[in-house]
Amino acid sequence: MKNTGLELELAQLQNVYDLITEFLVKYSFQLLGALIIFLLGLWLAAKVANTVGRQLEKHNVDVTLATFVTHLVRILIIIMIAIVALGKLGISVTPMVAAIGAASLGAGLAIQGMLSNYAAGVTIIVTRPFIVGNTITVKGTTGLVKDIRLGLTILTNEEGEQISIPNKHIIGEILHNSFANKLVETHFNIDYKADPQQAIAIAQAVLGSHPSVDANSPSQVGINSFNSTGIDIGVRYWVPTASYFQDKYQINLQIWQGLQQAGIQIPCPARDIRITERQED
C-alpha cells in the first residue's frame, strides 16, 4: 500500500513536470519576448518621464503639477507596454478590461474613501490652492508642504515631524496659506513710568536687523492693551516656517536685552500682605 501511494505521488509529480516542460518548450520564446518587451518598457517609461519632467522644469511649470504629469506619463506608458507584452503571450486584453470594469463597479463602494482622496488630490493639483514650499494651516494643523500626492499631502514642521493629511480633509475645509512664512505674535509688559515709544523703537530695531524677518510682510509693533501691571506692547512679524521657534526665541532675547540696556523694566505682579496682630483683651 505504501509503495502504491508513493508511486502515485511520483506519477503526479512527473505529470506536473511534463506539463511545465511542455509549456516552457512551447512558449519559451513568447515568455522571453514578453519579458524583454516589459523590461524595455519600464526603461522607456522612466526615460520619457524624466525627459518630460526636465522640460516642465525648464519652462518653470509648478513643481506639484510637473510631478503629477510626470507620474501620469510613466503610468500610461507602463500600461501600454503591459498590453503589448500580454499580446505577445497570446492573451487577449479585451476580456480582462471588461472583468476589471465589472470588478471596479463592485469595489467602488468599498474604496469610496480612497477614491475621494484621489479626487481631492486632482482638485488640489489643478486648482493649486497651495504648492510645495508653502505653509498651510488646515483643521488646526500647521506645517510646510513637503509633497503633494494624489491620496495625501505631506507636511513637515521645525521638529522634523512628518504630517500626512488625507486630501479629502483639505478640500472643502477652511485653508490658511501663509506661503513660505509663518506669523509670530508675541507681547511684553513695560512699566507705566517707561516711555512706550522707546520700547516700540527697540522692538522695531530688533526686527529690522534680524535676517530671518520677512521684509516683504511689514512687521507691526504697538500698544496692545493696558493692564493692572503695565503697558502691554504687541509684536507681529513673519519668519520662515522651517525656523519658526528658533527665530522667535532669538528675537525675544534680543528685545529683552534691548529693554535692559535702555533701563526699561518689565513689571511683575506684586501684592502687599499686611499682618495685623490680634490684641488680647
UniProtKB/TrEMBL annotation:
<keyword id="KW-0997">Cell inner membrane</keyword>
<dbReference type="Pfam" id="PF00924">
    <property type="entry name" value="MS_channel_2nd"/>
</dbReference>
<keyword id="KW-1133">Transmembrane helix</keyword>
<dbReference type="InterPro" id="IPR049278">
    <property type="entry name" value="MS_channel_C"/>
</dbReference>
<dbReference type="InterPro" id="IPR045275">
    <property type="entry name" value="MscS_archaea/bacteria_type"/>
</dbReference>
<dbReference type="Pfam" id="PF21082">
    <property type="entry name" value="MS_channel_3rd"/>
</dbReference>
<feature type="transmembrane region" description="Helical">
    <location>
        <begin position="93"/>
        <end position="111"/>
    </location>
</feature>
<dbReference type="GO" id="GO:0008381">
    <property type="term" value="F:mechanosensitive monoatomic ion channel activity"/>
</dbReference>
<keyword id="KW-1003">Cell membrane</keyword>
<dbReference type="InterPro" id="IPR011066">
    <property type="entry name" value="MscS_channel_C_sf"/>
</dbReference>
<dbReference type="InterPro" id="IPR010920">
    <property type="entry name" value="LSM_dom_sf"/>
</dbReference>
<dbReference type="InterPro" id="IPR008910">
    <property type="entry name" value="MSC_TM_helix"/>
</dbReference>
<comment type="function">
    <text>Mechanosensitive channel that participates in the regulation of osmotic pressure changes within the cell, opening in response to stretch forces in the membrane lipid bilayer, without the need for other proteins. Contributes to normal resistance to hypoosmotic shock. Forms an ion channel of 1.0 nanosiemens conductance with a slight preference for anions.</text>
</comment>
<comment type="subunit">
    <text>Homoheptamer.</text>
</comment>
<feature type="domain" description="Mechanosensitive ion channel MscS">
    <location>
        <begin position="114"/>
        <end position="177"/>
    </location>
</feature>
<dbReference type="InterPro" id="IPR011014">
    <property type="entry name" value="MscS_channel_TM-2"/>
</dbReference>
<keyword id="KW-0812">Transmembrane</keyword>
<keyword id="KW-0813">Transport</keyword>
<feature type="transmembrane region" description="Helical">
    <location>
        <begin position="65"/>
        <end position="87"/>
    </location>
</feature>
<feature type="transmembrane region" description="Helical">
    <location>
        <begin position="27"/>
        <end position="45"/>
    </location>
</feature>
<dbReference type="GO" id="GO:0005886">
    <property type="term" value="C:plasma membrane"/>
</dbReference>
<keyword id="KW-0472">Membrane</keyword>
<dbReference type="Pfam" id="PF05552">
    <property type="entry name" value="MS_channel_1st_1"/>
</dbReference>
<comment type="similarity">
    <text>Belongs to the MscS (TC 1.A.23) family.</text>
</comment>
<feature type="domain" description="Mechanosensitive ion channel MscS C-terminal">
    <location>
        <begin position="184"/>
        <end position="266"/>
    </location>
</feature>
<keyword id="KW-0407">Ion channel</keyword>
<protein>
    <recommendedName>
        <fullName>Small-conductance mechanosensitive channel</fullName>
    </recommendedName>
</protein>
<dbReference type="InterPro" id="IPR023408">
    <property type="entry name" value="MscS_beta-dom_sf"/>
</dbReference>
<keyword id="KW-0406">Ion transport</keyword>
<dbReference type="InterPro" id="IPR006685">
    <property type="entry name" value="MscS_channel_2nd"/>
</dbReference>
